[in-house]
Amino acid sequence: MPDDLLKNGLAIVDLNLLKPLLTEIVETAIEKHFEKPKEEKMLTIAKVCAMLDVDKSTLWHWNEEGYLKKIYIGGKPRYKESEVLAILDGRTASNRKRKTA
Fold first, then answer.
1. Same domain? 20 vs 47
2. Quick one: which of 37, 55, 61, 96 has the fewest CB in 10 Å?
3. pTM (2 decimals)?
4. At CA 52, angle to CA 82 and CA 79, rounded to 5?
5. Same domain for 56 and 86
């Protein structure tokens, strides 16, 4: 009988050997599912101006255009570091195009 099972692609497995493997697979899947997302670093106006070498009036215009949007946290304007770095890398923030006159 066991030879017939192996010929058909089936195998008899001891559950005691399978249990640790299944436990590891399930635990890994749970850890990945519930991973905390990376927190976005938020930057001040002064920091963004220094990084991009622009005046704060430029940041105001970019916000109005939707090119680099500010977010208020506790009533204070902040910018997402990832969007500022995207501009430095030659990409537009959040794939938004700059309006040109």
1. no
2. 37
3. 0.57
4. 40
5. yes
The span from the CA of 12 to the CA of 2, in Å, is 8
Cα–Cα distance measured from residue 58 to residue 11, given in angstroms and rounded to the nearest whole number: 69
- Match 């066991």 to its residue by tokens: 2
Domain that holds residue 29: 2-33
Single-letter code of the amino acid located at 53: D
CB 70 within 8 A of CB 78: yes
Residue 96 one-letter amino acid: R
CB-count exposure of residue 13 (10 Å: 0-12, 13-18, 19+):
exposed
Q: Tell me what percent of the residues of the chain surpass a pLDDT of 70.
A: 80
